Amino acid sequence: MPSSRSASSGPEPHSPEKPKGPQTPGQSRKSNSKDVPSTPREDSKPGFGTLRRAFSRVSPQALAQSPEDSVGLLRRSSRFLMRSIRRPLTSKPTADQTQVASAPGAAPGPGVPAKVGGGVSRQSSLGARPEDAGPETDKSVADLITERQLLVAFQQLQDVESQLVTRRNSHTFQQDPTGFARQAMDVCLHYDALAAQIGAIVRETLGPDGVDAAALAELTRVVCAEEAAHPAPPADGDFLRTPRRWRQLWEEAVRQSAQERVLQAGAPESPGAAEGASNLARLLADLGAVVRRDLQKVQLEVQPTYAAAGFPAWEVYLRAFHGAVAQRLQELATDARGCEQLYLLLDWAANVYSSPDFLGAPDLALPAEPLPPLLAPEVWARLESDYTSFLETKIWSCFENILELERSRWGDPETPEVLQGHYHTPLSLDVHMLVAEHVKAAGAISPELEATTQGICARALGLFLPSFEKAFLASGEVSAPHLGASINALEELRTSLPAKFPGTFEGLQKPLVAATGTFQKHLLQGLQRDVQPLFSAVCTKDWLTQDPLTPLMDKVVAFARHLEHVVPPRGQEILQEAHRYVVREYLAQVLKPRERFRGPARVAGSQKMGQEAQAIHNTFQGLGSEAAWLGQAIPRVADILGETHKANIQKHLEKLIGSYPDIRRDHVLAILALRRLGRRRNHELLQRAQDLLRAAAKSRGAEALESHVLFEEIEVPNSMDLLITCI
Questions:
Q1: By three-state DSSP, how is residue 43 classified?
Q2: CATH class held by domain 380-522
Q3: pLDDT tens, position by position, 540-578
């Protein structure tokens, strides 16, 4: 398809390393008069750099000329270069031109246009004209190139090139080296113009005007024709017949086109606009859209035309875009700042670009091999390291926000909501969401980053727990429901985090259990403050005729209602602790009585203790306490106190020591002091008790001792009665 640009008469002379498009005649004349280098360059690519060799091949006199003379020849011939370009290279010379050229060694004057073909007619330079030749054969090569009739232009250039080689080999130009240099320069310039058109076609392929299949087909034909005409470098180093390597030029043009497309994608509207995370996200989205759209166009529209000529267009475009995207991401990674921007780059490279759906169809998926990594390993490692550093700060900030939210709830006088029968606070949910969100995001990038993120979350949670515990207990607004809700949250974290993220959060078991235990003790202390004054009525004068236990147990029942909304393991532990506390405090009052009962009062006191022991047992059993081992402590002491047959006291004492091996000698003395049995019997019972205690200490295990602790926590005061009992 003809180019939309204005037609020019010929290409501007330029270096073979950097082909340029056709220029206007005026521009060509100006460049010919100024841009010829003073010293011709030697280059592997045909062009101006080879003209010096052309001189040396044509004329021995040229070898004897000084560099200044050679430069003069180039400058003089360049003034007539564009005149030959403006007409067909094979145009028939005029009679005047033939006469001038016939003079040995004559050079064309300023007013005489340079001739192409050394005065040879069109038939002699291009051969006999085919019968079906079209009108384009009457056009100049420059016009053919401008109209993108590349194959016809190349064929004419090839004919002229062959004639030049033949005439040079026959020493026709021996007397006119300048004429040969001019014609060789014409051929090189037109070859460069052809190369420039090839690059222009490639650049326009992905443009907004759509794919010109005819231009692509013409491109493939001229590249294949050139490769057939110049299959290998000539043995004699002839620059005219040197391969032009247009296939490599085509591949380089594809790479440049991909780079331009990638650089234009998501370009910031103003300086610094791409610094924010949202702008970076937009840039990456635009980049993905451009790459996706262009590669789809290559696969569906460009590749079929190239494939007919054996060009691996899909592979070349794919590698070109992959390299351009990699370079663009490398630049963005250098300027990335903050956790969000770093993650956007990592996520786009790992998930968006590498997704099988990136190109919109499974058969268009980017292959993992043999494409190189999108980001170099060292760049990827730096991005992950920077991301985790920012992430650590961000996660700790999130935990601080969670703590502030919890503070706002502690001051709320309303009871926490009950979900599924338990007090609820969003603490556990917030922590789970925080950990899951970051771990999932990191896992989408790489397993290594996922493991690192889990470790960061575990360390942050370990630092958060002491802060949360301290702030909660120091708030002064702690209520039983809020304590129960916090216990539930910590218990949920302890059980669910290791299950969801095995191998990372097991180290938090002890801190979580410790924090939960602290809250349990604090919750129990509230009950103790309420009921402790009520124990002072036990074993007093009014005790036998009054019922101080009922208000005490009412408070226990009210307290236990809160425990119903605490998760079963922890609620049961607190209930058993409350049960143990009531029994322990009751016995503590019995072992240090304000009154000593004698006779009928002692028997009545024993019966009263038995009744209250049964009431305590029934109440806690009704509340669901599983601490059945506490049920015999008060009745055993009551039996010793109310036993009328002194011989049976030893049996009761043995049962007491067998049931509660943590009892000490001081406790036995306090119990015996309640009976006033006499020195000899007390001595015998104490001696027997010591033997039983030593045997129990050997047989009991540390676990049993820790789980059944009762008397060990009862302090017995040193009184005169105990001293008398010991004596």
A1: coil
A2: mainly alpha
A3: 888 888 898 999 999 999 999 999 999 998 999 999 999
DSSP 22: E
For the whole model, what pTM was predicted? 0.68
Q: Which two tokens stand for residue 461?
A: 């949670």
Distances (CA, A) of 251 to 133, 223, 248, 311: 33, 12, 5, 10
CA distance 354 to 211: 27
Decide: residue 66, CB within 10 A, 0-12 exposed, 13-18 middle, 19+ buried: exposed
Judge contact between 193 and 205, C-beta under 8 A.
no
Cis check for the bond before 93: say yes or no (omega within 30 of 0).
no
Please report the pLDDT score of residue 721 as a whole number.
53
> CA-to-CA distance for 32 and 19, rounded, in angstroms?
16
Q: What b/e sequence results for 187-213 when a residue is b if at least 16 CB atoms lie within 10 Å of its CB, and e otherwise? A: bbbbbbbbbbbbbbbbebbbeeeebbe
Q: Tell me how many degrees the CA angle 233-234-236 measures, rounded to the nearest 5.
A: 130
Q: Give dist(CA 305, CA 213) in Å, integer.
A: 7
How many whole angstroms separate alpha carbon 46 and alpha carbon 187?
10
CA–CA separation, 179 and 106 (whole Å): 10
Q: Kindly report the number of other CB atoms within 10 A of residue 578's CB atom.
A: 23
- Sequence-distant (6+) residues with CB within 8 A of 528 are 581
Amino acid at 291: V
Report how far residue 609's alpha carbon sits from residue 549's, in angstroms, rounded to the nearest whole number: 11
The confidence score (pLDDT) of residue 409 equals 85
Instruction: Please report the sign of the dihedral spanned by the C-alpha atoms of residue 27, residue 33, residue 38, residue 40.
Output: positive
pLDDT for residue 700: 63
CATH topology of domain 554-726: Tetracycline Repressor; domain 2 (1.10.357)
Please report the pLDDT score of residue 559 as a whole number: 95
Range list of β-strands (E), 587-715: none
What is the rounded distance in angstroms from the CA atom of residue 580 to the CA atom of residue 599? 31
The predicted pLDDT at position 94 comes to: 37
Q: What angle do CA 39, 40, 46 make, to 5 degrees?
A: 165
Cβ neighbour number for residue 684 with a 10 Å cutoff = 13
Q: What are phi and psi of 22, to 5 degrees?
A: -60, 150
Encoded tokens for 429? 């949910």
- Under-50 pLDDT residues of the chain: 1-136, 270-274, 702-703, 720
Query: Which contacts qualify for 302-310: CB closer than 8 Å, 24 or more apart?
Result: 302/205, 302/211, 302/216, 305/211, 305/213, 305/216, 305/217, 305/220, 306/216, 306/220, 308/217, 308/220, 309/217, 309/220, 309/221, 309/223, 309/224, 310/224
What's 208's DSSP letter? T
Cα 453 from Cα 435, distance rounded (Å): 8
C-alpha count within 13 angstroms, C-beta hemisphere, residue 227: 14
Length of the chain: 727
Judged by DSSP in three states, 137 sits in helix
**Rounded to an integer, what distance in angstroms lies between the CA atom of residue 617 and that of residue 556?**
12
- Residues of the chain with pLDDT > 90, as a percent, come to 48
The residues, ordered by sequence, that sit 6+ positions from 372 with a Cβ below 8 Å of its Cβ are 322, 326
Domain locations along the chain: 15-127+134-235, 256-375, 380-522, 554-726
- Per-residue pLDDT tens digits for 368-381: 557 888 888 999 99
The per-residue pLDDT for 441 is: 92
* Distance between first and last Cα of the chain: 127
What is the distance between the alpha carbons of residues 482 and 472, in angstroms, rounded to a whole number? 10
CA 467 – CA 250 distance, rounded (Å): 66
Q: Look at the alpha carbons of 376, 377, 381, 384 in this order and tell me if their dihedral is positive or negative.
A: positive
Identical topology for domains 380-522 and 554-726? yes
The DSSP line for 333-378 is HHH--HHHHHHHHHHIIIIITTSTTTTSSGGGPPPSSSSPPSS-HH
| Residues 505/458, Cβ–Cβ less than 8 Å | yes
